Fold these 2 entries.
Entry 1:
Amino acid sequence: MKFSQVMVLALVLLTTHAPAQDWIGRPRPDRTTSTPEGDGLAPPIMNAWQREILDLDGDWNVQIDPFDSGSLNYLSENRRDGWWQDRERTRPEQLIEYNFDATPVLRVPGDWNTQRDDLFFYEGTVWYRRTFESGTTPEGKRRFIRFGAANRHATVWLNGKRLGAHHVGFTPFAFEVTGKLAEGENSLVVRVDNRRRFEDVPAIRTDWWNYGGITREVGLLEVPETFISSWELRLEDGDLVGWAKLDGPGADGGFVRVSVEEIGAVTTGFGAEPELRIRSSSIDRLEVWSPERPRLYDVVIQSVEDVVSDRIGFREIETEGRGIVLNGEPVFLRGICIHEESLDGGGRAWSERHARELLGLAKELGCNYVRLAHYTHNEWMTRIADELGLMVWGEIPVYWEMQFGNEVTQAFAKAHVEEMIERDRNRASVVIWSVGNENRARPVQTEFRARLAKIARELDSSRLISAACFARLKRDEDGKLARVSVEDPFGEYADVLAINQYIGWYGNHSSDVAGMVVDTAWEKPLLFSEFGAGIKQGLRGDSEEVWTEEFGVRFYSDHLDWCDELRDAGALQGISPWILKDFRSPRRPLGGVQDWWNRKGLVSEAGVPKDVFGVVGERYRQWAEEDATRP
Ligand code: GCB
């Protein structure tokens, strides 16, 4: 070997053995081979639960690993025999410093923070291991292991072999395991790392709990060799249009048939991704989806080998000047913001019951709209919103300060948008995609969001694009009027302008404000995507005293009066006060009042209504009546 060859070899060895570091010098066990969204990922599998053959939820053995000892040795080099091998001691002299069989368990789905007191504040790595028997994959079939979500970085091994990784904490991902399953017992190992990193989306600072773990359902799915992986059917100018995607051998020439039996509508197409269209002449009987009448249809998609179904509603949403128009009629959005936290005292919500409880409360409040903040909520939320008749604002965690100029961050955000839209494109309830929350109005941040808006539009032309922005707040000369100017240059790229304003809570605007004026630079609809105040349920006092129920009632009465005036003047198209329920936040330590809860909920963490729940509810009922009787 020549000297130069030796040098090249040495360099290769050095680089492959050097651990990847993040910029504060911490080893990054997993980013060496991964792109921002992940690697080894299977194509999206829509409506996956109808495919499931084996539910992998339940108790998983876990090993907490604060120093990444499972992946890195004492010199921070990548281990060759990491804990993914799920080894057991078979000889007396063998030294193996982990044993999944002897560890406690955590429930999946579920965050780890609320399952064990010692993990409440934990941010780091946890190894999950579960064994199962499934038999090998039958001839002519394919199998996938699918996760509803894991927060934030998940790497997955089956029987000691790496399947891949996923880095978007709030969307589903799957790995193909055809040909990889054992005849007998399988070992499935998942390393979940929820450390916050500067380049991530979101980055370091959020006003919500960084719940870690396998937070949504896990299952082993079986599909035919060439299967229908995803589809879309939507209403466009009176026709039903869409596509279906085939994956597998022969997909290119494949045949697809889509039918909506109830209205006798059928269409067919050929190819891996045939375009589908059902002309309006054949769908005269179609009833559109609306909050008042959330009509859903059974849609069946069939190929030569496969058949899947979905419950889909059809509606059209657009803007007209400053108005939002649903199925040709102006609509005012009576909303509420929601974090994905359960009413059982917090923790990540993930189940159908959680979704029914949260969205049921929103219905009780008189909402026709919910803002699912600040990341993609579990699929139950949008499916049940479809069923209950709640319009949805879907969001990605492009939140506060991030590395907007960093290409990795940009790629992360892109993956968030793509995976969110991919999952929910058939949900009639979703009317708005949001690409940011309270990002500064600097060029780099505007460009970042504009790029995401473009991606979202290219992927999905049937919804409106927005972002929750800061507004400039001033008082008029006499001090009585709050003047809100919507100037964020992202407004140029949005279909709907949305601002978060905290007049009367943060800053010095308070009870002597008599009204509100809004100036916008664009002739576009405007939403108040947030306003709210901290209220401790049951705390009584003066209406000037923060945290009290009385303060809350005055605050909301004033705000709703101002909104009422703006609404009458056609200057405001909807509101989503912050927020339905008190939610956990590491930024809210105030003892005796907050105790790690953001107290801006209309109900307490356990779901007990505060007085303001009634105040908002009353106004929403009044508005609903006005809107229903408007000629
Ligand atoms: C905001 C943020 C939201 C916070 C809220 C608050 O503007 O968008 O994430 O939780 O204010 O309570 O301060």
Entry 2:
Amino acid sequence: MTLRTASDYMKSLRDLNPLVYYQGRRITDVTRHPATAPHVRAAALTYTLANHPRYRNLATAVSHLTGRTINRFTHVHQSGEDLLKKVKLLRLLGQKTGSCFQRCVGWDGINAVYSVTYEIDQKHGTDYFQRFKKWLVQIQDQNLMVVGAMTDPKGDRSKGPAQQPDPDQYVRIMERRADGVVLRGAKLHMTGGVNSHEILIMPTTAMEAGAADYAVVCALPVNAPGVTMIFGRQANDHRKDNRERIDAGNPTFGGVGGEAVIVFEDVFVPWERVFMNGETEFTGPLVYRFAAHHRANYGGCKTGLLDVLIGAVAYLTRIQGTDRAAHVRDKLTEMIHLAETLYSSAVACAVEGRPTPSGAFLVDTMLANVGKHNTTRFHFEIARLALDLAGGFLATLPSQHDFTHERIGPWLKKYFSGVNRIPVEDRVKIARLIEAMTGGTTLVESMHGAGSPQAQRVMMLREGNLEQKIKLAQALARIPPTRSRE
Ligand code: SF4
């Protein structure tokens, strides 16, 4: 069955009913549980937009495999234009949700695995690419959501996968059978895990030759026997899914991605769903391509979120009567400048994208790392400016119960009012939204999602071609190139 609408998507999640725990209890319906429902609604918007006449051009694509119209979140990028549409789609969804909508992780996994399986087959004569395309056609035709499962626990980080005292610290093949493989291990921080249909397992890092059991790529349903998910606790836990409250922040969409630990307890995966089986030399390129695609995204999705945050701050200053002050306008200008700088990187990554041997397009990897690295700084600076302009009442504001209390409510409404004729509820709602978008989990996600800052610095130095830059300087300074160390 093809999932066309958001309600098809929700129903399919109820039918799947994966094994999910949260705060020590089983969640039996992720579409209705207050901890997970906002994240489901954010992801559901990827289904809604694909049916909307105004957004269909961005939110759908034509499959190069079948010629059929598919949800863009299942598409393999065939051109720079596809990459550009992705950035625009992510910004749009960020604007509409003010939140992570999660579906990009699997999309980036699909694109990375597609190009790498092609190259493995070219070298080894395997048939991973055919298997992967067959699986992907199902994903496209049924419009399924995929969680890209990359990050392993890693145990003692001074040791590689095969040297760990506990061999389960990286997902590994326990057994190879005639009909498939048996997996054990776990993946952490799995964005959208509890509300996806399929898990696409990928290695977390480049593997050495002795780590063949850890060099595994495969796909399995989220409700496969032996799969358990534990949904993460977040800073805004008690403010989610409470749409009638004025102090919930972003009650519809939660404001951040919903992440889970996924444990694989001797899980069987048939061969037709295995897309890498020990080819360690391809783990590095796979991780690299996935990371590049996902890092490029941040200039799209986070810019959309920042559009919301900047709008929230601008509105708050207006209803507080400070919007005409020169320093307020200057700080808003700075916020816009930083957000658009992030967007520029994402656009540049797409425009400078190039085809891989498989034909799938890959973003410019240097610019993707630069863009994500800037996100880890600019999002924080924009949040700092937002808090500066919003004022200290963000931290001291009483709750909804106090505002609606018979005796104390009228005082609060009087003393928290802003300019004339604006209901005090507007000021509270917008303040709580700013609070939700500048706090705890949101900023951690910007820092570490798609890789921590140091991971980008490693890639920038590796790709920065210092030797060529030295030669440029030597040529202008009239220094013979032989005086270089190299
Ligand atoms: Fe997509 Fe952005 Fe969320 Fe990553 S952080 S899954 S790119 S919305």
